[in-house]
Amino acid sequence: MLRSFDISAIIDLDRAREAIGKLLNLIEGLQQENQELKRLNQLLRDELRRLNGEQGKPDIKPSRKDKGKNFSSEKERKKRKQRNKKSKKDRIKTHHKCICKVDPDILPEDAKFKGYQPVVVQDVIFSASNTLFLKEKYYSPSLNKTYLAPLPPGYDGEFGPGLKALVPKLYYGSNITERKILDLLQDADIHISAGKLSDMLIKNHERFHAEKDALYEAGLNSTPWQNIDDTSMRVNAQNHFCHIVCNPFYTAYFTAPNKTRLTVLDVLKNLAPRTFLINEE
Predict the structure, then answer these.
(1) Global confidence as pTM
(2) Selection from 139, 158, 155, 157 nearest residue 147 by Cα
(3) CATH class in words for 206-275
(4) At 12, is the secondary structure helix, strand, or coil?
(5) How far apart are CA 129 and CA 161, in angstroms?
(6) Dihedral (CA of 205, 210, 211, 212) sign
(7) What's the sign of the alpha-carbon dihedral 70, 71, 72, 75?
(8) Residue ranges per structural domain of the chain
(9) For the segment 50-105, what is each residue's pLDDT rounded down to a tens digit?
(10) Cα gap 40→48, rounded to integer Å
(11) Which of 121, 122, 162, 192 has CA atoms 20 to 30 A from the CA of 98?
């Protein structure tokens, strides 16, 4: 068509319209041909992916909505939800009782006392509560031995059980840094160093480790299968791997310097000592 097209023959408006019409027809034909070539090219790509064990391009059809239906959620949004809010006064434990008196100067002469109107106010007191324990001490000259009374259960060292429970709660449960916890305790007039605070978080937690081991063992026995994955991480400026073992009932995390086959087996065995089966070969 382009070979038979002579531009010099366009000498008036009618011939120009005729030429523009031919060009538009040519563009439309080329567009249809281009679409068909794209479709064939995609089919060849999908066939190559299928031969390589991959999946082809998904055939996603456009969504169709019924024009006659109303999909607006305005009625649901305006509808008031029924709230079953229960009173919490019966669940609040009161620690102190304070009687608020009416100023007698504002009472008329015929005013009669009608009891009290209870108002429960919740508050928190965060301050130091230090205890001086006087441990009885006895000495036996005949045995050359000193007898000393022990501290009450839960007290070990210079900090009480309440403080030892609060520090892990703030750090692990509330995601508060050690520096901020130290500032909070020192503001409450607790004399504690940064090193001692760090020891509370990482040392003498054998009960926690035992509980974690028991939970992991129960999780391994809860299903006949386990999901396991790993992700890289940095520990003391060294490359390590965090191994994640889980199923719908639990998730456990382990840190190891590598992700070899033996490391994965160690994780699945809860880091138990390795055992090997040696055959005759």
Answers:
(1) 0.55
(2) 139
(3) alpha beta
(4) coil
(5) 12
(6) positive
(7) positive
(8) 8-41, 133-203, 206-275
(9) 887 777 666 667 666 555 666 666 666 667 777 777 777 778 888 889 999 999 99
(10) 12
(11) 162
**Residue among 194, 157, 159, 164 nearest 177 (CA):** 194
Contact assessment for residue 223 and residue 248, using Cβ atoms and an 8 Å cutoff: yes
Q: At what angle do helices 194-202 and 178-187 cross, to 10 degrees?
A: 120
Residues 6+ apart with CB under 8 A from 136: 148, 149
SS3 241: strand
Sign, CA dihedral 175-177-178-184, equals: negative
| Dist. CA 163–CA 242, nearest whole Å | 31
The C-alpha R_g of the chain, in whole angstroms, comes to 40
- pLDDT digits over 194-249, tens only? 999 999 999 888 888 899 999 999 999 999 999 999 999 999 889 999 999 999 99
3-class SS of residue 198: helix
